[in-house]
Amino acid sequence: MATPTAPVSPPPPPRTPAAPVWPASTRDVPGGGGLAVGGVPLGEIADRFGTPVYVMDEDEVRSRARAWRAALPGADVAYAGKAFLSRAMIRWIEAEGLSLDVCSAGELELAAHSGFPAERIVLHGNAKSPDDVRAALRLGVGRIVIDGTGEIARLAALVPPGARQRVLLRVVPGVSAGAHAAVRTGVEGQKFGVPVAGGEAEEAVERLLGQPRLELAGLHCHLGSQIAGLGPYVTAVRRLVPLLARIRDRHGVTFPELDLGGGFAIAYREGDPAVDPGTYAERIGSELDLQCARFGLPRPRLTVEPGRWIAGPAGVALYRVLSVKTTAGRTFVAVDGGMSDNPRPALYGVRYTVRLAGRASAAPGRSVTVVGRHCEAGDVLAEDVELPGDLRPGDVLAVPAAGAYHLSMASAYNLVGRPPVAAVTGGRARLLVRRETLDDLRSREVGE
Ligand SMILES: Cc1ncc(COP(=O)(O)O)c(C=O)c1O
Ligand SMILES: N[C@@H](CCCC[NH3+])C(=O)O
Asked: What are phi and psi of 311, to 5 degrees?
């Protein structure tokens, strides 16, 4: 009788390596002083600028920007400003040689007034307002991404006679990817782009090619956000290159550019996978070569649009503990910020890790839930995290991976005012953006 063999399970898919959650400059302060980032003790930052406060590690931002440029020589790396934008951030991105993706006249004007070259700016938006488009044309942005067929004639009509605006067409390749349904933009049935399936994209290309004031330079797609694997990007290339070939066959046009968007995952908690730019470059680059060779197309210049990957891990949010309360067997540590400065837990169910930052503690840890100060039970930052048992009001807590989509999505909920941003580098901290004060909020009240 044959010996029964153990059932053979397929080999596990290759996992993206775990990524650091804290900026590379994070250290323990000697003598029990807690944590430091960029050479500055976080407790000192909390005392100097107040809490909540967002700390951006300038060197971390710059090295992350450089990582994408180094991984993709010759490609265009456009930082997606929606993740976090401030004058300093714009200057760092400019100095590192990146382009900038904006999606409103507000982001665009801030970039232009901060000296960012307009030709390196890409304007996005599924519903660009007349102000957005006018600002883009006045400032001379390099590319405008067309999101729908209805936009084509409207935009062309605003381009002054004799001028030509370079555009890309945002297409939907039918690829479902992203950490939450709300951020999956690569599939049909959501508001962005023009589907490849069913010929809609080809129809839009035809219309664009018929507009002498628009210069269609290529296709764009953005699959979604917080995408940890590369499979979706490979599939997108496999769908977009055949579309490029169909366009070439039908219209005799070969586009010089292909923009594959952003969406690269970062780690929010220890052990989370993240995208590695080098691996992306290798995998997507070789797929692009393969598909282009297959269809006899020259390889277009690639654009990528990382937002979160550059800004997220460079940011640390600091809060002060306001209360520690044990109720019905659970301990809640409430801090002086929450869903008004970080709506991500409430929007996408994301949970963060937290550390005591203002001092060291030898007290044994206990499991607590860190909550915000807002009027909702869902205002939770971190669930069942281990923090020292002697945690008390006044302690400073630090939340990592806080540089992207926190402040840029912050609100004035409960009229607490948005936190300031301080940059750290080389042992020094400086204020980039001041706190929104109650006077700021009251000054908007102009009627009775
Ligand atoms: C068009 C476009 N490009 C780039 C990004 C940046 O995404 P992420 O911050 O996930 O890299 C976004 C947002 O998801 C986007 O909508
Ligand atoms: N705001 C989302 C990502 C959406 C990206 C914008 N296209 C987040 O916090 O994860």
From this structure: -90, -35
261 ligand 1 Cβ < 6 A: yes
Shared domain for 371 and 234, answered yes or no, is no
What's the per-residue H, E or C state across 329-347? CEEEEEECCCCCCCCHHHH
- Domains: count for the chain: 2
Q: What's the confidence (pLDDT) of residue 18?
A: 60
Q: Rounded to the nearest whole angstrom, what is the distance from the C-alpha of residue 226 to the centroid of ligand 1?
A: 9
Residues 431 and 358 reside in one and the same domain:
yes
Sign of CA dihedral 92, 94, 97, 99: positive
β partners of residue 430: 423
Per-residue burial over 143-171, b = 16 or more CB atoms within 10 Å of its CB, e = otherwise: bbbbbbbebbeebbeebeeeeebbbbbbb
Distance of CA 121 to the CA centre of its chain: 16
CATH code, domain with 332: 2.40.37.10
Active-site residue list: 375
Predicted confidence (pLDDT) at residue 5 exceeds the cutoff of 50: no
Q: Return the bridge partners of 125, or none.
A: none
Position 410 scores a pLDDT of: 98
Q: What is the chain's mean pLDDT, rounded?
A: 95
Question: What distance in Å separates the CA atoms of residue 352 and residue 399, rounded to the nearest whole number?
Answer: 7
* Structural domain boundaries enclosing 229: 58-311
- Helices 277-295 and 58-71, interaxial angle, to 10°? 30
20 has a pLDDT exceeding 70: yes
Can you tell me the ipTM of this complex? 0.99
* Residue that is last in its domain, among 272, 288, 311: 311
Testing ligand 1's pocket by substitution, the residue of 98, 170, 225, 259 carrying the most ligand atoms inside 8 A of its CB is 225
Task: Give the pLDDT confidence of 154-173 residue by residue, as tens digits.
Answer: 999 999 999 999 999 999 99
pLDDT given for residue 8 in this prediction: 52
pLDDT value for 19: 82
Check pLDDT > 50 for residue 231. Answer: yes
| pTM score of the predicted model | 0.95
The pLDDT value recorded for residue 9 is 53
Binding site: which residues? 263, 305-308, 344, 348, 376, 405
- Please tell me the distance from the alpha carbon of residue 69 to that of residue 77, in angstroms, as a whole number: 6
> Residues 347-361: what's their mean pLDDT?
96
Q: In terms of DSSP H, where are the helices of 100-257?
A: 105-113, 130-139, 150-158, 200-209, 231-251
Q: Is the CB of 308 under 6 A from ligand 1?
A: yes
